[in-house]
Amino acid sequence: MNWQLSNLLRAIAITLVIWIHASHPWWFGAHGTVSLDSLNWEVFIDTAINQVGRFTVPLFVILSGFGLAKSEQSRPFQLWGFIQRRGFRILPPYLCFTLLNLAFRQEFQLGNWVEKLGQIAITLRDGSGDYHLYFLTIIIQCYISYPLLRRIPFTGLNLAIATIFTLSLFTLRWTVSLFHLLPDLAPYLPNSNHWMFWLPYFLFGIWLAKVPDWFTAALRRCSTQIWGCLWAIAAALELGEFYFSAIRIGSAEAVGHYGRPTVVLLTITFLLWAMSWKSQNEPDSPPRFLQFNTLIERLGNASFTTYLLHTQVLRLITPAQVLGGIGYLLVAAIASWAIGLLVWAIVKPIKGLNVIFGA
Description:
Belongs to the acyltransferase 3 family. The chain is mostly helical. The protein has 15 helices and no strands.
């Protein structure tokens, strides 16, 4: 893993996040019908994008851990400096975009000051200001834990323990929710936005930066084609599990989340496959995507701005939904990236605005 690959993965992940949100009117169960009779090619393709793309948010968390640990190679860790930099990076956009979205809600506009303050507090606590801001609450939790997690050394045993714990936690949450097992335990299990479900990804990213040679050696035990096949198998399992779960409980929305063991497998296999693109090529013969370093770096730098703005872009281009579930996804990605890159380029040199827009 290096900065170039990290930028590429951010660009891929942002595009898939845009498609996940844009595909919502067409995916399986979008209109309350969770029957295979409702399947057609458009629904199947949009559902595949919506579900197989679920590795993107865990991937962002991994890349965040990687970026923080990698930056320590050029700038030694200092707690107060870390708090200032990370807080300045994440809190202003989170506060501003949360308040902006709240201001347009009728319930907020009609409430008195006490009710408005209560809504602000609740929204900031759970990240419900907009349907993508929950991710920032996850990152905030990861940042808070970083000073402790960075002290956990990488060993084969620690990796095994973390892997077993993660799969066990996700499997427990999934089985309890789906099969209604251990009903006395269910109320005490956190939802999938809780830090317990995300810190293992974050820790994995930290280890990627600290022991790159170990992971490179492990990747070379299999060819890129094999890693790709493993990811394809994981994608098929994840999509099949989604259909099974949605039909079983009669709701696609309730089961199409990130807190599932198949999403863990999907995320890790994709990341290993992506890392093998670089590790199995000679240093003087880089993969084809590295020929576009300038573009990839620009997309990576503008990814946070694009993420913050893409929900508003999707609302803006709602009339384009007449193009259908495939055409609309293409328009959504192009429009979101175009506006994200434009805003990023405009606000980057402007103090204050560059912080608010994540530039």
